[in-house]
Amino acid sequence: MKLFALLRLFILILPSIFQQVGASSPTTAQRLEDASQCAIKCFSQFVDKPTFSTANKERICHDHKLSNAVASSIRIACPIRDLFDFLKLEQINCGRPELDNDHNIRGINYTILGIAVFSIVLRTVTKSYRFSQWGADDYLIIAASLFTGVQCIIMGLMTFAGLGRNIWTLDDSTITTFHIYLLVVQYAYVLSLCLIKLSILYFFLRTFPDPTFRLIIKYTIAFNIVTTIIVTICGALQRQPIHLLWDGWKEYPPRGITLNIPAIIFFHAGVNIALDVWMFALPLTQLYSLGLQPKKKAGVMVIFGVGIFLIAASCIRIPYLLDFTRTLNASSNAQGFVVWSNIESGVGILVACMPHMQPIFRAIAARARSWNILPKGSSSSTEGIFVQRSLATIKMSKTDGTTLVEPDDLVLHDRGGLLSEPSPAKKVDSKFGSVSETGTSG
């Protein structure tokens, strides 16, 4: 308990380490005329005189092109805090409601955490009852769940640092804290997804014996690891000096060395979706040729086919990434891709654990049927799970210098006399299993 308390304390005080003294706070003014002189000068360039006439105030509320043009001008010519204060005053002047989605985000977050914990607990119980043995895939999914837990914890803290709210309502230190949390969530997401995929791939190695298939899996494992390393390194080097990763929002245009951040984000997203589709198709190629009854084969394919939900989560996340890379309102527009990143990790853990949870569900169903809670199985269950196949003749070929023998000429060496009927003149000693002949007196 002390360890978790210390960890929570560290997470809470971490942002304060990076915050600067004298951080600015949002304006408390209520009128558009109370904006900074720099912002007023930019605004006056796009409207007729007088600058703050009722018509101009109405126009900026309803003309989105004008509003965006003024914001772009202030962003280039003025400090970023002047822009945020102007946007806040514009929101008040236009009567726009305050954005606050933190309660919804927390609800989704707790649901994701519950799904991950439930999946890992059931998988661990299955292993504890020895329905199957522990393997590398089990340890990898436990490691992935730890990173998913970090995602959920930080995502909860982000709601107190502005996630789901307009960025111009936050002070400078809170915005810096938000970007620190965002950086941690991104790294936890990348590592969690890598470990989830590795767990699934190692499970394929344990399940399918085909040599060609196993070689393909090993190449896929290597590709997954290499691409994760590339994305991790590029993410660490995206802004130089490194403190610009959480302080760089204050400057426009950004100074220092800046990599093409959207390219890094979409490279990882594209590779991620491609791997999901590839890993979804891989086991189906092996399951299709199994000699199972159609109903049983469909059930097995459904268990392995739940990866379709992981593909769906990856694809839904893409539009939110597009919005985030083009937005100034990071704390508001980040909620879409942060939430869907966590959903993707939670669904990934569920998908990885589904095949391992089947034995315990079967055991629970059997116990429920024995207690008459569930109806007994139908007679069709006695037909077996494998399809009926005729035995094919095995054609033999010479492999050495010996002579092949026809089936009718085969001689069985029956040393124990198991294939011949006992002679009446023989008596079997039941104690020692020996056979002795008994003579008749004439």
TrEMBL record:
Superkingdom per UniProt? Eukaryota
InterPro entries given in the database record: Rhodopsin_dom_fungi (IPR049326), SAT4-like (IPR052337)
Which residues does UniProt assign to the signal peptide?
Answer: 1-23
The record's subcellular locations are:
Membrane
Q: Which UniProt keywords apply?
A: Membrane, Signal, Transmembrane, Transmembrane helix
- Any Pfam family: Fung_rhodopsin
Q: Where are the transmembrane segments?
A: 107-126, 138-160, 180-204, 216-238, 258-279, 300-322
Keyword S-adenosyl-L-methionine belongs to the record: no
Q: Which ranges carry the Rhodopsin domain? A: 122-362
How does the entry describe its membrane topology? Multi-pass membrane protein
Q: Where is this region: Disordered?
A: 415-442
GO annotations of cellular component type = membrane
Name the predominant localization: membrane
**Bias (Polar residues):** 433-442
The similarity comment for this entry is: Belongs to the SAT4 family.
- Its recorded name reads Rhodopsin domain-containing protein
Q: Which organism is it from?
A: Fusarium oxysporum (Fusarium vascular wilt)
